[in-house]
Amino acid sequence: MTILVTGGAGYIGSHMVKLLQARGRPVVVLDDLSTGHRDAVSAPLVEGRTDDTPAVEKLLREHSVKAVVHFAAYSLVGESMVDPLKYYANNVGGTTGLLQAMRAAGVERIVFSSTAAVYGEPQRVPIDEDHPRNPVNPYGATKLAVERMLDDAHAAYGLRSASLRYFNAAGAHRDGSLGERHNPETHLIPLVLQAASGRRASVSIFGADYPTRDGTCVRDYIHVEDLCEAHLLALDWLDGGGGREVFNLGSEHGATVKEIIDTARRETGRDIHVVQAPRRPGDPAVLVASCERARRVLGWTPTRSDTATIVRDAWRWERACTSA
Fold it and tell me: Which residues are catalytic?
C-alpha cells in the first residue's frame, strides 16, 4: 500500500518517510521545497504543490496511492499574523486541492497534521480534544478550517480521516540523520542548542513572571519519532475501518523554559547565555495535553518524549550541523 507524504521534505515529514520505509511501506513524497530540503528525502520525490489538483490526481494514480499523510502547510504563527491570506491560500486552499484529487482518484484515507493552536487560550489544563476551539492566530484558524472540512468530507463522501493535534514537536532522529532546519528558527529547543554550540550568542526567555513553578511558560514537548509512530498507528486505525476522529499528541508532562535550558546545559556540558525579554502577546502560561484518546483508540504511548532524550537527540543533530 503506497503512502503519499505531502511535505515529506520538511522536519516531521522527513522523519515520517524514514519510519514508513523502515516498516517496509512504499512511500512517495510531494513537496514544493519552499521550506523543505531535498537531501532530507529518502523516497521518490515529486516536486509540486497540493493545490495543483490535476497533477496530484495523476501522482496518486501513477503510484497507486492508497492513503495520504498530509504535512504540507505553512506553520509560523508570527508570519500568519502578518500575512494571513498566505496561510489561508496554502493551508486551506492547498488541502482543498489535495482532497479533490484524492476524491477523483478514489483515495479514501488521510492522516492530517493539525495543531494544539486550534484550542487558543486554554480554559482548562490538561487540554483534551473536547476543549473549546478558539484559535487566536490565523495559523491555528487555518488548521481548524481543515479539520472542519474533513468533518464535512466524511459526512458527504465517506472520506476517512484522523486529525492529529500536535503540542510542541521537538527532538531529532536518534541516528543523527534528520532534525530541525527551519529558517527562521522559532522553536525553543533548537534555539537553546544553537546557543550551546555557538551558532547564536544567546537565547531569550520571554517573560519570567508567569504563574508557574519558576515564572516561565510551561509547554508539552513531544519527540518527533513518537509523533511519527502515532501517524503510523492512525494509518492502521483507518485501514481497520476507522472513520473520522481527532487526537491530541503530547507527552502529558509540561516543562518550563528554564527547565529546558537547564536540561540542555546538563546534556551538552556547555554554558548557555540567557537574555531576559518581555512577555510575548498571546503566550499562555501553561499548555499541556491530555492524550487519553490516543492511548485508548490508537494504542499509542510515547517512549522518547522525556526532556532529556529530546534534548540529547536534538544535540546530536546540532553537532552534526556544526561539523558539516
Answer: 139
